[in-house]
Design goal:
mainly alpha; globular; 3-stranded antiparallel β-sheet
């Protein structure tokens, strides 16, 4: 008896279904790691944005980045930020904001030690999974796939922007 994974033939062309299947299979692995640490996919994306920004970021920039990445409503992302703050994984930096930022009403958030530790643990665990998933795929194939997926993302974002503006 064949299973769903062994019954699927290797695709000869990339399309939305092939991309979605790869995304959801990899995301399921990531969510398994996140579940063990009491985090969600949205938490992970949000913590990553702060970490990549050097551990601190303006709240509006964080919300804008995560909203754009997840294609989620701003209110959903604001809720995620509140969850992370309530869990002491993010904290306000307002007391230390420079005068010009305070005058402009800019609010900053930073990773707490617990937030940084969670981000680092989950990133380390998923790095091993990622290495296994991409093992033995030639660099040239990965480069082509990267260019194609970047172009598809760019076009989809343009379509979303056009639909929003219509």
């Amino acid at each position: 008896m064949t299973t769903a994974t062994t019954a699927q033939a290797a695709p000869t062309a990339v399309d939305g279904r092939v991309i979605a299947l790869a995304h959801y299979a990899a995301r399921a692995l990531l969510e398994g790691v996140l579940d063990r640490h009491g985090a969600t996919f949205h938490h992970s994306v949000t913590l990553r944005v702060v970490a990549v920004a050097g551990g601190s970021i303006a709240r509006d920039a964080l919300v804008r980045d995560v909203t754009g990445s997840l294609k989620a409503d701003e209110s959903v992302v604001e809720g995620v930020v509140e969850e992370l703050t309530a869990a002491h994984l993010l904290e306000s930096e307002d007391a230390e904001v420079a005068e010009d930022e305070a005058a402009a009403g800019t609010s900053r958030l930073r990773l707490t030690d617990a937030g940084r530790a969670l981000y680092e643990r989950t990133t380390t665990e998923t790095a091993g999974i990622t290495a296994r998933l991409y093992a033995d795929i030639p660099a040239e194939d990965l480069a082509v796939a990267g260019r194609v997926l970047a172009l598809v993302t760019q076009r989809a974002n343009a379509e979303l922007a056009a639909a929003r503006d219509a």
